[in-house]
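Workshop exercise sheet. Pairs work together: one partner reads the sequence aloud, the other fills in the structure field after running the prediction. Swap roles for the next sheet.
Pair: D.N. / O.F.
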Amino acid sequence: MPKRREKREILERTDHRLDLSVAGRNLFISRDKQAQSRSARRIKLWMRAVLTLVILLGSAAVILFAVSYVGPWLQSEMSVGTGSSAPASSLPSSLPSAVPEYDSMGLPVYSEEVCLFLVNKDNPVERDFSPELAEVNGVRVDSRIASALRLLSTAAKEDGLALVFTDGYLSYEEQEKRFNAIADKLMKEEGLTTVMAKSEAEAIEPQPGESDFQSGMCVRLEGDPKTFEDSRTYSWLKANMGKYGFIFRYPQYKEDATGLTADPTVIRYAGSASAAAMQQRSLCLEEYVSYLNNQ
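Structure field:
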């Protein structure tokens, strides 16, 4: 009996006794086995933690790549596929951010916001407004219409006509000088007061900020406005300039809409699609813009 009790005390000090069986048999696990088991569990836990961290970092990297590269690429592909372009600003002083489409003439196609940008008494521009300019045949125009104006001049030359431009873009200050010069002339020649002279002058020359020449979309051709409609140049322009996107800015019988005396020597870029629509409907620029707004 003493030996059996001593053996049991030794086992109790060195091992754990687990009663695992139905019959109540005792299973002894040595301390070495217990240590190995605990070490294995710790290793498994560390491996799981490391694997989880690797998965999280990998997922974050994939999401970052998708947001930074794949997203913008898909967006650009969809934009090209649908033929969409960047919206033009309310003032056409900045070039479109997207590369424009081109028509059958090889001319860039711009939005209506650009082509039909209107400057008149009801839609004035600020003193510091100025589009990006390019020079064509001695006059400055909005750079976006330069290629169309050059093609128009070349086509006229091939048909034996020389288009000579006398006016292009006018700054606020230049328009101010022109208007004041006409008002002063009316005061001197007709004895009008300053107020009356300026009122009369508005039918001939717009106030500064109210002239469509300040848009950079207009040019004036050399010739007498009173007889220009009888010229071969006028007939050629009427038949051909629409293909290049140009219209007569101040046509006859449209004074009530434009607010200015008819002047067939002034042509204006409106885009080939709008030019064709305006010619078909016999509308001036103000009437056509109003027509579109009412659609």
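Discussion prompt: Residues 172-209 form one domain. What would you look at next?
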